[in-house]
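May I ask you for just one protein sequence along with its backbone structure tokens in two labelled lines?

_____
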Amino acid sequence: MLTPEEIAKKVKELEIVSKKISTHLFAGEYHAAFRGKGMRFREVREYYPGDDVRFIDWNVSARYAHPFSKVFEEERELTVMIMVDISESTLFGTVSRLKRDLIIEVAAVLTFSAINNNDKVGVIFFSDKMEKFIPPKGGREHAFYIVRELLTVIPKRKQTDIGEALECFSKNTRQKSIAFILSDFLDGDYAHRLRVLGQRHEIIGLRVYDKMDSVLPNIGMVKVEEAESGKTIWTDTSNAMVRHRYHQDFLKRSAECKNIFTKAGAELLHLQTNEDYVKVLKQFFKRRKIKR
């Protein structure tokens, strides 16, 4: 359990890292990646060559015997929901950091990116039930509150139910939103709910995994415990076939997860605990910008 002083220190550290990344490295890519609610009228000004003739204000033009154009601007305020998996399986990591640590940092970066663009941000913490719901709001203080909760929230349950989290999101979010799901996705029963939500919301999955989720090291007989169920088995990691099947199982789960998101019209990113997640997010924002 962190002391109040340790929490304050970690909040400050995470704020510095997150604000640096969201302000300097993304450099407007977040803003350009997501559409606003629409366009709103700003003003009428004199027509300039190259202006879209569809936006000529004929009434004003006739009054002044000179062409005038209507100027519109994008309504920027968006609602961003960040769904954070805090089940027991995220407390695993063999290189650099735990999956939970990466999830927390990415969630903080997304929070500050949204707040810096005057968007509202909310968070759903989930295991096999909704552990905590933070309604979407804007402002710097709200961002600090979210970061503090990211660092201190303690789950009551160990297992994962992404479908239940998606159902909670649907019940608590009325307006169209951008939803980021941060999880290791060790659960396969959520395809239908994701498809339903994908028809109304923009959904991006961020699948976090550790190197050892994919590859078993050759270290002989080891006792392996399944984090969420507590079941243990002995595994002979010196057996090449055992290691091959382990890796193939990982690839199969990855393909199934990708297929679920594709069918839902949603996007899925893969983040390894010892790799540069900033590069992955930046490339994603750039792709979205080009698609617009």
